[in-house]
Write a structure and sequence with these properties.
Blueprint lengths: L1 H8 L1 H8 L4 H12 L8 E8 L4 E7 L6 E5 L18 H8 L19 E3 L5 E6 L15 H27 L5 H9 L2
Antiparallel strand pairs: 1-2, 2-3, 4-5
């Protein structure tokens, strides 16, 4: 409950504080603002399309109920992957979701995974061979998008994956194929 309330009301402010710019970049942006070449507004981009002579956008400024239609020369969307897997338009994530191979976290911030970074299917079982780090794990590991935390997660996953082949080779020597190999062989017919 507290986490949901935080996400609804304080998340934008936390993002600003957590992801500060380096001072040199801040100075450059302030110079552009002072020259009138850059305007910074807090708004949600509702729609965008390429018009005949400009990019046509519809946005709603923070705290406003009505939307505004405007035109711009350039639109840069730098928000990253849409991590709400229930609503995503990303084809791969959508296919994994529809196949039941991934399941959403309760806050719509990404997908569920176990402590080994394995994606959890719709029944909560780990999907062997499907790993995730980064923004899609934000519902569980809030700071996973920050470089120090990403570095730690990447190191942990890499070490885990480096240990895995030895177990796979041992299984093959005993005459049995790993589960993924059986599926691959069966699908190749």
């Amino acid at each position: 409950m507290q986490r949901g309330r935080f996400l609804r009301h304080l998340r934008p402010y936390w993002e600003v504080v957590r992801h500060r710019l380096p001072p040199s970049v801040h100075e450059e942006l302030e110079q552009l603002r002072g020259e009138g070449r850059l305007v910074v507004r807090a708004a949600r981009l509702l729609r965008a399309r390429r018009g005949e002579e400009a990019v046509e956008v519809v946005l709603r400024e923070r705290g406003q109920a009505h939307a505004l239609a405007e035109q711009y020369d350039v639109l840069v969307r730098a928000t990253g992957l849409d991590t709400d897997i229930e609503r995503t338009s990303h084809p791969l994530v959508g296919q994994l979701r529809d196949a039941g191979l991934v399941s959403p976290d309760p806050f719509g911030l990404g997908l569920r995974a176990n402590e080994r970074f394995e994606a959890l299917d719709r029944h909560g079982a780990p999907v062997r061979g499907l790993y995730c780090i980064g923004p899609l794990l934000r519902g569980q590991l809030w700071e996973i998008i920050a470089v120090p935390e990403l570095r730690v997660a990447a190191r942990e996953l890499a070490q885990q994956l480096l240990r895995a082949p030895a177990a796979s080779v041992r299984v093959q020597r005993e005459g049995a194929l790993p589960r993924g190999a059986r599926a691959l062989r069966a699908g190749a017919r």
